[in-house]
Structures are given as C-alpha cells and as structure tokens.
Design brief:
The protein is an alpha/beta fold and 510 residues long. 30% of the residues lie in helices and 26% in strands.
C-alpha cells in the first residue's frame, strides 16, 4: 500500500523562500539572536540588514543565476547572508565549516560560484586562490584582504528589494552521499524549500512568542528548514549556537527561555541521563523534535518524564527534507509517524520493485513537492535516484507498522550480513542503550572469515565495563544470529554534524 498524509495537501504559494522567512514576524519581535555574543536582529532590523546586503551584492554584479558559497557556523549573519543571496536572485552552496579547505575547494569548483561568505580565514584563502571563488566576504572581525559582511552592507547603501524568484529557481545546493556513498550536489528549489518549510509549520506549529535553539547546523537541511526557515516563517525567534557544548546548551535554554528544541538522539541522551541537566532550569521547554537517526523509545520516554515536555521524532534526508513526522508528542513507539502534508510514502522490495504489504521491511520511497528534482550536473545519478513512478529511492529500510505509521530501520548499505542473515545495527544499539551503564553505543559489521560479517559494539560509559556482562545483556534479548560478537569501549562515538553515527570511521578503525 501507499502511505499518505492525514493532513490536507499543501496550497503552495508562489512566494520565494526568503519572503516566506522575512515577512511573517512583527517588526519589533526578535527574529534571531546569537547565544555566543548576544548580537540580535528584530524582524524589522533583519529585513533592513538583508536589504542592504542585497544592495551590496548587486553592486558586485551578483544576481540571478549566480551562486554564493556559504561556510560559517550558525549565527545571525549566517542567516543574513543566506537570505540576501536568495533575495538577490542567486542560490547558496552550503559548505560544512568542519570540512577541510580542500573539501570546500572541490565543492566550489564543482558548482562554480560568484561569491563566498565565510567565518574562516583558511576557507577564504583556499577558495579565493585555489577555486577562484570570486568576491570573498568574512563575517565578524576584519581578516586578510577581504571585506566583511558589514562593509558589504555599507557599500550597498539603501536597502534593495532584490528580484522576484520563480518557485522553480534554484535556492540551495547541499552535498549529500545519497544512497551511493559518493557526494553529489543536491539541487533544492524555492518551491522545494517553501514546501518543506510549510510541511513543518502545518505538522508541528509554533506560536510567535516561542523560540527555538538552533544548534543543528544551517548547512544541513534539518537546521536550515525545520529550525531556521520554519521558525522565521511563523514569526518566532531563533537562538543560534555555533557548536554543541552540553553545559552551554543547557545554559542557553535557561537564559533565553527556549520553548522548542530540535535535537539528535545524542542530545536526547544528554537530556534524559546527564546529572548536568539538574543544574539548569529547563521548565520553558514545551516540545522537543528529534531527527537525524532512530531514537530508542525508552530513551524518549525518560527524556519526556524528566523534562515534563512532549517529544516526537521525524524522518527526512537532504533530498527529501521534512518527509514524515510524529504529531503525537507523547508517542511511545519507535515510529516516525505519518507523511507530512502532500507527501506519499511506499515501502518497496528493492530487488523486485514490488510494493510490500504492511509489516514487511523494504526500501522507503518518497514522493512530494519537497523532493529534490535531482543532482546538479549529474543526470545519471538523478535518473538512478528515482523509480518509474517518480518516487525517490531513499536507501533506508522501513516498514508500515501495526499503527499504520512508518518505522525506519537501517540504511540498505549498513545492514550487517551474518551468514546470509540480515542484522540491524540500530536494533542492537537500542538494546545497548537500555543498559544502565551505557551512555552511547554504535554497532557495525566487521569482516569475519566464517560469517562474512559479525556485529561489533562500540560503547561509551563513565565507568569501565565488563565486556562479557554487556554482551550477555544484549545477546539474551536477540535471536542467535543477531548476537554481538565483538566489543570495544571507547571515549566517544564518532558522529556526523547532525548526530548520525559515522559508521565508516568505526569500520575503518576495525
């Protein structure tokens, strides 16, 4: 069967993304504020600042069809640079500030950019010299030979309204490994991003008096759409954080009276387990939304009970952002909920292409107005990403559960093959996380001559663990072929910037 949203289809306006984000808030209400240094823009100030940067960009010759590369930690001026590039008629290539300069150079060359905004002198130097990034601007303090964003705004003079943008115009470019593991440039239009923003608004709305804490990076779809754009589109306040630090994160919630948290499972674990939480007032938090990876239901329950707030999880990816979302913030299941407005989901046998019945595990496929049209400059990869009916092949395994909602399992390429049997690393990780001494865990398949692969657990704990005891804890709760065969206690589970387990790094470590 095809799983469809229980919400009405979206009535998508022709409004470009930057107008959706800029025009909703009352003039005097705070639009975005930085936890790091307190710099703040009200909605009126944000509109004025964006208009002046648009005027500055236009003086450099930046306009429709051009691309601005943006590499910076979350901050108010990151928001300004993004919205200004769109208002000037251009698109933004989102660079991960944690990547190496060589990675930035490679992506800038692949896309071709007219300008760069960055908070890194090193990125500015490499991209200016090695990738011919055009005009380079830095946020914050003056550095090197490059003008600052402040100077660009001053150069522009009076604010410019920018140019109209068609819903089909390119707005964001994000590199993603997709289903193949090879990074590709995901092309997202204004229409895609407006749809994803409104899906968030309709599915999990905010009141204008609310605030969100933006630690999920804006260079990722989760942070850009669900945290930034959806918050601004509802006239609420975004509190930016440049990086995650547990004490600073909890302090920011207390100081800013944050009402909505968008988190990854690592942060849910902190909120549910860490004694540090007791040192801060978290009573302002009304709801928590978790994404990026599967969340163990018991951990979600502990977090809800400790903070006294609702918690729900959702599912999406760079190519198909806000696809599925729980709207019951007290759900006790592992489900990620129902499709967002205007979205259809199928579970398909990836070998036969046959649609599977409820309860059967297969590849999740998605259709909706938020789904990318494809990969920039790569027609072969684009063609391979969609099936004959136009559904995106996500590469994720899932099933429609007994409640008629979607439950996500593992990536197709992450399933462990033990003697021909398929073993879910996520299932084993969720069991490990119920162990009273385990703070974090990851399971990967490692080579084995007899079994092809065996599950190996990497575990984080505050105390030394008895490997045999932990293995018994897991293995008495699973079928024999699913048993964890190897164990290693480590200081930290490697994660991607959005909190997904970096399994490739663990595999490489053996």
């Amino acid at each position: 069967m095809t799983l469809r949203s229980d919400l009405p289809d979206l009535d998508l306006p022709p409004t470009p993304l930057h107008r959706l984000a800029l025009d909703a808030g009352e003039a005097g209400r705070v639009a975005v504020t930085a936890d790091a240094d307190g710099s703040t823009y009200t909605y009126e100030e944000l509109r004025h600042r964006v208009g002046r940067v648009v005027a500055g960009l236009e003086q450099t010759g930046f306009g429709p069809g051009d691309v601005l590369a943006l590499s910076a930690a979350n901050s108010p001026d990151h928001v300004v640079a993004y919205l200004a590039a769109l208002a000037a008629g251009g698109a933004v290539l989102h660079l991960n500030p944690l990547d190496l300069p060589d990675d930035h150079v490679r992506q800038v060359r692949a896309v071709g950019v007219r300008a760069l905004v960055t908070d890194s002198d090193e990125t500015a130097l490499y991209c200016a010299s090695d990738a011919q990034a055009g005009d380079v601007f830095t946020t914050g303090r003056p550095a090197g030979p490059w003008a600052t964003l402040d100077e660009l705004a001053e150069r522009g003079g009076d604010p410019s309204p920018g140019v109209p943008a068609d819903p089909g115009a390119l707005a964001s470019i994000m590199f993603s490994s997709g289903t193949s593991g090879h990074p590709k440039a995901v092309a997202l239009t204004h229409g895609n991003l407006v749809a994803a923003t409104l899906q968030t608004v309709h599915g999990i709305p905010l009141d204008p008096d609310e605030s969100t804490l933006a630690v999920a990076p804006f260079h990722h779809a989760f942070g850009l759409v669900m945290v930034l754009c959806a918050t601004l589109a509802q006239g609420a306040t975004v509190v930016t954080m440049p990086r995650f630090d547990p004490a600073r994160y909890l302090s920011a919630v207390q100081e800013h009276g944050v009402t909505r948290l968008y988190v990854v499972p690592t942060i849910v674990s902190l909120l549910a387990r860490s004694p540090l939480v007791d040192e801060y007032d978290m009573s302002s938090v009304r709801r928590i939304v978790c994404g990026g990876a599967a969340l163990e239901p018991g951990l979600a329950r502990r977090c809800r009970e400790r903070l006294g707030c609702g918690l729900a999880q959702g599912y999406g990816m760079t190519e198909a952002m806000m696809s599925v979302m729980q709207r019951d913030f007290g759900s006790a299941t592992a489900s990620v909920g129902l499709p967002s407005a205007g979205v259809s989901v199928r579970v398909v046998d990836p070998t036969t292409e046959r649609e599977l019945p409820d309860g059967a595990v297969g590849e999740v496929r998605i259709l909706g107005p938020h789904v990318t049209a494809g990969y920039l400059g790569d027609p072969d990869a684009t063609a391979a990403a969609f099936d004959a009916d136009g559904y995106l092949r996500t590469g994720d395994l899932g099933r429609v559960d007994e409640h008629g909602t979607l439950t996500i399992g593992d990536r197709l390429k992450e399933v462990i093959k033990y003697k021909g049997q398929q073993v879910s690393p996520t299932e084993l990780e969720q069991i490990l996380l119920t162990h009273p001494q385990v703070l974090d865990a990851a399971v990967v398949g490692v080579p084995d001559e007899e079994a092809s692969e065996v599950p190996k657990a990497y575990v984080v704990s505050a105390d030394p663990l008895d490997a045999a005891e932990v293995l018994e804890f897991v293995n008495t709760r699973v079928a024999p072929y699913k048993k964890v065969r190897r164990f290693e206690q480590i200081d930290e589970i490697p994660k991607t910037p959005v909190g997904k387990i970096a399994r490739q790094r663990l595999r490489a470590a053996g």
